[in-house]
Structure formats: structure tokens, C-alpha cells
Specification:
10 helices, alpha/beta, globular, binds pyridoxal-5'-phosphate, three-stranded antiparallel sheet
Length: about 350
């Protein structure tokens, strides 16, 4: 039987070797006789796991030394408000690029704790089909930061590039949850990046924050202690109990990504795969991609059926072929395939074949 493949945009696909390694460690970590989950977070063993994960992340993304790597919780959704609290605060103001469902949610949460200004929007009557590119962003003098969602996972839109910060520029803050560790990025373009771990790094419960340290000094207390980014940095992300299992899994995922050759290799592989997918979708009369050509995501490929009443049949046929979780985000509808680093060429072949056959039938 062909193994089932997940294209879910909610959880990462895990490489088989990672699952096997983690299974061993979760039973007996490093010959200690203890499962990883039993390691107290003050234990040297856990500190070693955490430090190794951070070293790998720093190498993979070439994170400069003046940037902190923080391991937090709460998910990206939790940090929508936390980012605003830490960087703008109650009297502050922040600019937001309005690009899709996730940027709207980020804005709504930030608006609860600071003033929010929309610096650009590409919404039209049909929702979001293109991105407002940096040249269209209005500067906002009083803004503490400018927020961008690098990959709009519900609509299938992804920014290809980000502006280089000029002297005294408003720092760019990015929700990178939708395409974290899918391609190389120039960390210096950003003041702060945050991402939930479960879409590329394994399991929910861990949120990664990469922040230029001088920005963390701008915080305006009072802040909840565990979400005070400067405090997290001082305490090496151990203000309170970190999610030990999720961090262990993330460390093993990062090891695997390094073994695969790093983000340039994974990014190129992904580019080729998504080009194939979009070509099949564009070439068929059964499917339509709404996202504007240059803004199409290489992470979340979103498409609709020309005859929407046949979508249930399509998803059913996919599931019978072992291809799962292809339904789109409920708020947007349609279908969606998230391309995961751990997918094989065969997984892609199977999806392409399914689309082809369905279109011809
Ligand atoms: C999934 C997703 C989120 C939400 O992540 P949670 O971990 O559920 O909070 C936020 N932003 C983007 C771009 C996403 O794709």
C-alpha cells in the first residue's frame, strides 16, 4: 500500500528518520533511562537539547549575534498582541500591511493594545488575490514598527522580497509562520520575526521569536513576565517551564534540515515543485488559482474548482489515493496544498497525477 501523505497547512509533515529518532529519545533519552518528557527544564540534559536546537537554527538562518532567539509559547496568534505590547505599548502606534486573513487577525489583536495604522492594502471585492508590494507601502512616521505577514497561508500569497532597512528606518516585524524555514531569508531586513513551530518545525506549543536585541529595550512595562521578550532573553527562554517535547522535536527537525543541505537546497527543491503544481493547475480547465502570478506562494498552493459543487468529490478521490488534508482554510474555502520540506518527489508526483486525472475526467 502506498503510504498516506498529508498536505495540511496546520501541521508539519515529519521525515521518517526524525520520527524514528524521536521515538527512541522519547522512550530513553541518550541512554539515561529517562524519556525526554521527564527531563526537568533545569536539567543539564534539557539545556543541552535547547542549546543544540538554537545553534542549528542560527546556522540555518545565518542569524547575526546581535539577534536574540527566544523560545516562547502561545502560538503566532498569541504573539499578535504580544509583539504589539513589547514593541509599541499602550501609548504606541504600529503600521500593518493588510494582505490577507492572517494579517487581519494580527491587526485585530494588536489594535487591542496599541494604535494600528494600515500602511497598504490589496483587498478587493473578492478578498485578497495580490500583495501590496513594498513600493506601495506608505511610511508612517509615528509607527514603532511595520508588520508584514510573509506568507498568507489562507489565500496562498507570499512576499518574494523585503525592503532593505535604511538608516533610522521603522523596523520590519514579520509573522513568518506560513513559510518559516522554507527558504533562505536575510534576517537583517527584519527587526523581529515570529513563527509558530508546528507548520515547519514539528509540534504546536513552541513559538520562535528572532529579535534584534536593541528593539527589546524599547518595551513599555507592565508586561506579563513570560511574554516580556527582554526578560525571556535574559532568562534564556526559561522564565517558566518551556515545552520540552516540542523543543526536542524542533531540534531533530533542524538537524534533518541541515543534513538535507540547508535552506538554499530545500528552497530550490520547493521552487521546482510549486512551479510544477501551478503549471498543472493553470493548464487544466477544472482548477483555477486566484492568486496573482508573481505573488503566488511556494509554501501554500491554494486553488479552487471551476465547478465548486465537485469539490467534495475531488477531496474524496484525493483521500482514496492517500492524499490528505487538501481542503482550504474554512474562512476562504477552496483547496490548499501546503508543500512541506519533508515531502518526497514521489509525494508531489502523486498530487500532480491526481490533479491531472481529475481534470481529464
Ligand atoms: C497558521 C498561521 C498562524 C496561526 O498560528 P497558531 O500557532 O495557530 O497561532 C498565524 N499566521 C500564519 C501566517 C499562519 O499560517
Amino acid at each position: 500500500m502506498t503510504p498516506p501523505v498529508s498536505f495540511s497547512a496546520a501541521t508539519a509533515t515529519l521525515p521518517r528518520v526524525v520520527v524514528e529518532r524521536v521515538r527512541q529519545d522519547w522512550l530513553d533519552w541518550n541512554g539515561t533511562g529517562f524519556p525526554v518528557a521527564e527531563l526537568p527544564f533545569s536539567d543539564e540534559g534539557f539545556k543541552e537539547i535547547q542549546a543544540a536546537a538554537e545553534r542549528r537554527l542560527r546556522r540555518l538562518l545565518a542569524i547575526p549575534d546581535d539577534y536574540a532567539v527566544l523560545l516562547s509559547q502561545g502560538g503566532a496568534y498569541g504573539h499578535f498582541a504580544m509583539v504589539a505590547l513589547n514593541l509599541a505599548g499602550p501609548a504606541g502606534r504600529a503600521g500593518y500591511v493588510d494582505s490577507g486573513l492572517w494579517s487581519r487577525r494580527a491587526m485585530d489583536e494588536a489594535a487591542k493594545v496599541c494604535d494600528v495604522a494600515v500602511v497598504a492594502s490589496a483587498a478587493d471585492d473578492d478578498g485578497f488575490r495580490r500583495l501590496p508590494l513594498p513600493a506601495e507601502w506608505r511610511g508612517d512616521e509615528g509607527a514603532a514598527y511595520c508588520h508584514v505577514t510573509t506568507n498568507e497561508s489562507a489565500e496562498g500569497l507570499q512576499f518574494a522580497d523585503f525592503p532593505a532597512p535604511g538608516p533610522g528606518a521603522v523596523p520590519l516585524v514579520a509573522d513568518m509562520t506560513g513559510d518559516f524555514l522554507t527558504r533562505p531569508v536575510d534576517i537583517r531586513r527584519f527587526g523581529l520575526i515570529y513563527a509558530s513551530a508546528q507548520k515547519s518545525l514539528g509540534a504546536a506549543g513552541l513559538t520562535i521569536i528572532i529579535a534584534r536585541r536593541d528593539l527589546l529595550e524599547r518595551r513599555r512595562p507592565p508586561l506579563p513576565t513570560v511574554f516580556d521578550y527582554a526578560r525571556l532573553d535574559e532568562a534564556r527562554s526559561r522564565v517558566n517551564t518551556p515545552p520540552v517535547l516540542a523543543i526536542h522535536l524542533a531540534g531533530e527537525m533542524l538537524r534533518w534540515m541541515e543534513d538535507e543541505g540547508g535552506l538554499a537546497v530545500l528552497g530550490e527543491r520547493r521552487r521546482q515543485r510549486c512551479r510544477r503544481l501551478y503549471a498543472v493547475l493553470d493548464g487544466s480547465s477544472a482548477f483555477v488559482c486566484r492568486a496573482h502570478g508573481a505573488d503566488r506562494s511556494a509554501s501554500t498552493v491554494c486553488f479552487h474548482l471551476v465547478r465548486p459543487e465537485r469539490q467534495a468529490e475531488f477531496l474524496d478521490r484525493a483521500a482514496r489515493a492517500g492524499l490528505h488534508h487538501l481542503a482550504g482554510h474554512p474562512a476562504v474555502g477552496g483547496c490548499r496544498a501546503m508543500l512541506h520540506n519533508a515531502h518526497s518527489d514521489t509525494d508531489l508526483d502523486r498530487l500532480v497525477e491526481l490533479l491531472d486525472q481529475f481534470a481529464r475526467a
